[in-house]
## 1
Amino acid sequence: MKIVKKNNHEVPKTMIKRWAVKNKIWLLDLNSQTIEERSVEATFAIEEYLYVPLINEVRNDDVENWLQGGEEKLARFLKRIAKKDIHSPMKRADFNLFTLGLLSLAHRSGYTVSMVIKELEVNEELRKTMGLVESNYHKAAVENLINLINITVQKFSTAKFKVMTNFQKPLLISDRPCIDGTMNDYNFISCPMTPAAAIYGELSIDGPMLNWVEANLANNQLVDNINEFTIAQARSWIVATTRNQLESIRHLVTPEEIKKRISKDKLVFQPMTGEGLRFK
């Protein structure tokens, strides 16, 4: 009997643990408003069967396996950042999987999946638009996630990426770490990679291209800007390297503030394109 993957990380554990100090990370839980020290297992980022819907009464983990392929290349890239290995070439196939691992982080949060499910449950017109003939909204939400990720990867297939390292001020990370500006008519994507490194990608027809830039003290404002994006995007949790950093931002993520942001969130429903991974 096949054993499916039950515990799905919305952000890969290998990424979250980059924020660890002595195998511990500091977590701000936006639901309970508590700050506590947690292990690098990052169980707070796990949702059971998040990408593993029931199909014909059987759990299907094809999407979890698909995402894992990108996560493995992303993990290797994080090791390169840690080693400051900026010269090793990357094969095109590996680059494609790396961008899958990176860009998927803009669309795969538990919050996003649950919001799509809730909207499908109450919006009959949307169900008709998406051509749903069954009430398996979890399956439909995961298929929507597949479509969004595939289209985002396609958009950035010839992009110019820049890895910025050695920031002096620490970056934050949240349950929705990657910002896809193309969802709001911008041409970029950005994501914190470690407390001291971030990646920025810009749409282009001249790529794919990957450059490395070492930050300096003048980039402190850039860190503040990235952290502002991270705080604005967060819906479930934020991780930092110190408790003090989380204490200093707690007033920005009160329940009232999160509720306001949720009321303004734009759900994106991407119709089937006939390409890429699909459930049978």
Note: The mean pLDDT is 91.
## 2
Amino acid sequence: MVRQIDLIISWIGSARLETFTEPKELVDNPRYQEQRQQSLSGLSDSMIDAPIVKLINGFNRLPHCFTLQSCYGHFVHNRQKDSHNLEPLPITDDIDSVEYRIAYIGFCIENSDSGRELFEALKGITTINPENIQFCCAEWFWNRQVNSYALQVEPDRFKDKDKAILDYWEALQIEKIRSEFFIRLQELIQKQLERNPSG
């Protein structure tokens, strides 16, 4: 998980609860460039989950957005107790339940033509599996960083939580959706970078 600037308090825990809202429209933000520079100056690869370092760096090359936080998502169970592990779920019959720690990326998007195009493209990622992927805002977070959004992989019934207890078979399904989610985001960022070669 990434923490990039002091004004951004962790997008986890009780602060997320009951704050899920549908994505707001982009608004003017005169401090966008200043905030972007401040955020990216505090970011290093070591702060990002290894499987998504390239993806996060790709988004941060775009002039019309920057990432706020991210998490690859973690599966914790009786055979894997490390809450930050990056291992795939094993194929087994001795895991009944899994604690899933949400996969997501938090973004700040510029209110510009390119930013609005990215906004729509990110919303489109939810079509992979609308019951388990959300593009959203958190009201408390918006108040700290205007034009902030999250794209997350989480069963809809848990969409306002940062973790969920799933049965093993649902966890396997979420793992597959997470893989497709990050593949599609990598494709999206590649197209964006091709259109913005100076990024």
Note: The domain at 13-195 is CATH 3.30.1960 (SSo0622-like fold).
